[in-house]
Structure formats: C-alpha cells, structure tokens
Specification:
The complex is a heterodimer of chains A (261) and B (322).
Chain A (H helix, E strand, L loop, with lengths): L1 E5 L2 E3 L7 E2 L2 E2 L6 E3 L1 H16 L3 E7 L5 H10 L3 E5 L9 H12 L6 E5 L10 H9 L3 E10 L5 E7 L2 E7 L3 E5 L11 H7 L4 E4 L1 H4 L7 H4 L3 E6 L8 E3 L3 H15 L5
Chain B lengths: L1 E5 L2 E2 L2 E2 L1 H12 L3 E8 L6 H6 L2 E8 L8 H15 L3 E5 L2 H14 L3 E5 L1 E5 L2 E8 L4 E8 L2 E5 L14 E4 L9 E7 L13 E5 L6 H14 L2 E4 L1 H5 L20 E5 L5 H4 L7 E6 L12 E4 L2 H18 L5
Parallel strand pairs in B: 1-4, 1-6, 4-5, 5-12, 6-11, 7-11, 14-15, 14-16, 16-17, 17-18
Antiparallel strand pairs in B: 2-3, 8-9, 9-10
Helix pairs in contact in B: 3-4, 5-8
Chain lengths: 261, 322
C-alpha cells in the first residue's frame, strides 16, 4: 500500500499576530506542522504499523517547510517531497489542490490523506478539491481508519447528525479530524534515522504544472484586507450567594435581555 | 441577482441553517431557488416558499436519505445549471464543508468558506471570515458566479409568506465507491443543536456524570439543546455530537449558557454568534467572561441546580412562557 500525506506548515496560532497594511507581520512568527495534518500522518503511520505500507509526505513553501518534513520522517514516514517554488505562495484552497493533485496524479497512491482543515485558515477546502481534480471518492473529518480484507477502507467520520460508518474504495482522498487521537512523538531513533531518508525537492516544472495554476495567480478568491476582529465586549460579572445569583440571571434573561419571552 | 441555496434536512424537515441562507437572499432582494435533496423531504417545499424561495429543485428518493458526497454534488451541479445562479450558498456545517469545496472544484468556481458577512456587488462577492484562530478578520473577494458557506447565525430566517414552484430533478447515476453503512445515533431526543434557541453547554469542570446531569436538567427545563466543549466530550461526559467549537458545531442561538467552560478560542469560535452569552465559572479570570454578557463567578454544582429550580418556578407560575 502507498499513502501520500499532505502537510501544511502553519504559523503558531497560539501566539499573537500583528497586522500592518492588511498583512500579517512576519517578524516573530513561529511555525509548526498543522495539527490536523499531524493527525492525518498518525492515521497513515497506524496503517503502516499493521501492514506493509509506504508513507510519502508532501509539503510546499519556502526553505523552512523542510522542518515539517524532517519531523514527519522522524515520526516514521518513509520519504518526503518538498515542492519548493516561489510561485506557490499565496494560494487559496483551489490553487493548493492543483499542486497536490499534479504531484499525486499517476503515482499509484492508494490513499491521499490530509487534515480536515488548516489551523491558520480553517478553510477545509483542499481535500475535497483534490478529490474532485483527481476524480476520486472522498471521506472527510474521519476519526478512525482501517483497511478491510477486500481492500476497501472503513472509516468513521463525524457528520452533522452523529458518527457515520463509511466504507470507501481505494484510491480515495480522506481528511482527518484532530479527534482521531494524539499523534506520536518522534523518538531519538526516529530522529537519527530520518537523516538517512530521502527528502526530495521538486519544482513546478518537475510536476509539469504551469505557474498560472498555483499560488496567487491560480487562486479564485483573493484576500483584500485583514483587520483585528471587533469581538464582543465583556458584560457584567457577578459574585455572591447562589440563590441570589440564580434570581438575578433569570431576571436578566427574562426582563432585560428579553430572550426568554 | 440569483441565489441557489443548498438545503439541509433532518428527519424530513429543513434545518434552521437553510432558512438562514434564504434570509440572506431575502436581505439582498435576490431571486432565491433551493436544492432540496433527501428522503421524504418534498413536503418542505411550502416551508421554503414561505421563507422566500421562488423555485425548489426537488430530489426526493430513499437513496438520498443519508448524505453521501457524489450524488449530492451531481444534484448541486444540475440545480446550479437549471437555476442560472450567480451565487450558491451552503451552511458552514459538516455537509457544507464536505460538499461546498467539491462542487466548487467541479464547477471551477471560487469558494469562500465560513463567512460571517457577505455582500454581493456588481459582478463580485465580498465576504468576511476569521482566520488564525479568530485573531484576524479577513475580507475576501471573488468574481461571480461563486460559492459561499455561511456560519450559523449570519442571517436571520424570515417568513415572507410566498410560495415556491417545484421541479423534480432526475436522480444521478449511482456511485458505489463511497457507502455510508450506518449512522451511530448519539444525539438525544432534545432539540438539535443547530436549531436550538437556547443552548446549555458544559465544560471539563462538570467533572463527571453527576455534573453532566445538572447541565442536562437545566437544558430540559429550558427546552434547550445540550452543548459541550471538546475537553468535556473527550472526557466522556457528553457525546461528541454535542461538541461546539472549531472542530465541532457552530451555533448561534438566542441564549448560550456556558457552564464550567474556560473559553478557549477553540470553543468560542463555535458560539460567538450567539445573541446573549451567559457564563458560569469558578475562575474569575476565565477568558469566557471576556465575551459573556452575563457572568456568574460561582461553583456550577451550587448555582446550576438553583437555576433549574428558578426556571421551574417561573414556568409553573406562568408569569412568562419559557
């Protein structure tokens, strides 16, 4: 079995971000592997734990992206591919999907896995778009994954009305929830072993993909401004005795906010 | 301006999120059509008409009883072509997240997910959405035709008293590569989270089944849905179907009562659209208080049963219909 796991390097969303002229200030930012993609990698590695399986990881972006790929190799991926081309920057989900599909096409992957969304954009668009471009079935937001004896994959996904048990034929595109479970940490042996694993750098030309298809040029949507959200203001905060607090809240909801009438 | 709304149903009834999308079309004075796909859903054409749809494309068949990507994507494409829409609207639900980008790629249209405001202009759509864990509000533009998914509560459903013409769509060819074998019911008899006017949500501080019961009792007296933080679901206090937040449901009820929830962005991202937010927490510095309209610093085990009693008394006294 051969699995492609797509990894995005995202800015650490726990840290504060500064805006200048509608752009995020790059100074002081720290970067990490998108946590949802980490869950996707864990899903792939769990299959590899059980069966004969080759796990290839793919990321795109500038030099720093190599950090994410090296971590993935240390966690247990077999090889890494870095699409390093200035033209890929600033792409929306569609432009990103074009690049992933161009890489995956014709390479015989049984599964293309990625996180259900990226922590920086929360867009959740790339997986289904890759599936459509490659003409493959998709299952999104999965929390478990196993291969059945007939080669199909059995998943559980979280849908709007509860957990669904979904089977899908290979090849397929599957996106993984962060509720899949904690990803493994790289071991010392893994970190040392990663140095001997192949990390290949490719360009758009290698993929036969025109620069007009990716990055800002290939995007169908455009970010025209960024600002700090206005957010909600804090209201009142009461302390005191339980019975009195309960009465005051009921009074507020019924007579002041008038939302219980 | 023509808008196509992709409807979602549960047990044959249109969800509130769908009526909110029609509310958006109404607010813009747009001509609204709807794709209504499912099993036993044709009776909802009237409801859609009353909320402003002028045309409903119906695909009502037992095979559409459970959502699967391929047939719904094919139907959305067919409805798009038949309607000549400038803008397709999805709710930012799990269905919307699965189907919206697939249909966008199929049609080669721009896709703006999870918008919190949308304004169609001449030849383009302008939308706002949050990124970087709620720390940044982005403004996006895309040329029409385009696809946008809307966060719950972005627009209000509104009855305008119209009626809709309906047209049946032929069923798409079956694609057996993906099969939903079953849906594991973990939702209760209570009102659906997405449709609820009141949500009572519990966090990690409920500490166990007894604390969770207090949340459920309060929800029941209010006729509310039960929500929960991810931590509380992971700890097994509530089923995962209750999870509100970045990776759970996005809700925008009239009242959201957050109990024992600290208020991390991963949770609040799913509920800041609520009209009134009430927070109950022992920690006076909990971030939830910075967005709450009404905060109570107290132990939930003391104050929640008192609240439940207070609302029971109110209902019994009939001084106000809760």
């Amino acid at each position: 079995m051969k699995i492609l796991v797509c990894l995005k390097q995202v800015i650490d969303v726990e840290l504060n971000v500064q805006l200048r002229d509608g752009r995020i200030v790059e100074e002081g930012l720290q970067y990490a592997m998108n946590a949802y993609d980490e869950s996707a990698l864990e899903a792939a590695l769990q299959l590899k734990d059980k069966t004969d399986c080759e796990v290839v990881v793919l990321s795109m972006g500038p030099d720093r992206v190599a950090d994410v790929l090296k971590k993935a190799l240390a966690m247990g991926a077999d090889s890494a591919v870095h699409l390093d081309d200035p033209a890929v920057t600033g792409g929306d989900s569609y432009a990103t999907a074009q690049a992933i599909a161009a890489y995956a096409n014709g390479k015989g992957f049984d599964l293309v896995l990625m996180g259900r969304q990226a922590q920086d954009t929360d867009a959740a668009g790339t997986g289904p778009m890759v599936a459509e471009i490659l003409g493959l079935p998709q299952v999104t937001n999965i929390v478990s994954l196993e291969q059945e004896s007939d080669g199909k994959f059995l998943t559980r996904r979280v849908g709007d009305d509860g957990r669904e048990v979904v089977s899908v034929d290979a090849p397929a595109v599957i996106t993984v929830s962060n509720d899949f479970g904690e990803a493994r940490l790289p071991t010392m042996k893994g970190i040392l072993g990663a140095k001997k694993k192949p990390l290949t750098v490719v360009t758009l030309a290698d993929l036969g993909l025109d620069v007009s298809k990716v990055g800002a040029a290939g995007s169908k949507t455009q970010v025209v401004g960024r600002e700090k959200p206005s957010g909600r203001a804090a209201g009142r905060k009461l302390t005191g005795e339980g019975p009195d607090l309960a009465k005051q809240l009921v009074e507020y909801l019924v007579n002041e906010a008038r939302v219980l009438a | 301006m023509k808008v196509l709304v992709i409807a979602e149903t549960k047990q044959g009834k249109v969800k509130k999120g769908t009526l909110e999308l029609l509310g958006a079309a109404n607010a813009w004075g747009a001509e609204a059509s709807v794709l209504l796909a499912g099993a036993g859903v044709a009776g909802e054409v009237d409801t859609l008409g009353r909320h402003g749809a002028s045309k409903v494309y119906v695909a009502d068949d037992a095979s559409l009883g459970m959502y699967v990507t391929a047939p719904f994507a094919a139907l959305a494409v067919e409805a798009f072509k038949a309607s000549g829409a400038d803008l397709i609207l999805f709710a930012d639900s799990e269905l919307g997240k699965d189907l919206g980008p697939r249909v966008a790629a199929k049609l080669g249209l721009p896709f703006i997910p999870g918008a919190v405001s949308v304004a169609p202009e001449a030849g383009k759509v302008v939308a706002k959405r949050t990124s970087i864990a709620g720390k940044v509000m982005e403004t996006l533009e895309a040329p029409l035709p385009a696809i946008v998914s809307l966060k719950a509560g972005t627009f209000e459903p509104k009855e305008v008293g119209g009626s809709a013409a309906s047209e049946s769509l032929s069923l798409p060819q079956s694609d057996l590569r993906t099969i939903v074998r079953e849906v594991l019911k973990e939702t209760s008899e209570r009102v659906d989270l997405g449709d609820a006017r009141i949500v009572v949500a519990g966090g990690r501080s409920v500490r166990g089944p007894e604390g969770a019961k207090l949340i459920e009792d309060l929800a029941d007296v209010l006729g509310a849905a039960v929500g929960a933080s991810r931590a509380a679901c992971d700890s097994g206090y509530f089923p995962h179907a209750c999870q509100v937040g970045q990776t759970g449901r996005t809700v925008a009820p009239d009242v959201y009562i957050a109990i024992g929830i600290s208020g991390a962005i991963q949770h609040t991202a799913g509920m800041t659209g609520s009209k009134v937010i009430v927070a109950i927490n022992t920690d006076p510095d909990a971030p939830i208080f910075s967005i709450a309209d009404f905060g109570i610093v107290a132990d939930l085990f003391t104050v929640v049963p008192l609240l439940t009693e207070e609302f029971k008394r109110l209902k019994a006294g009939n001084t106000v219909a809760v």
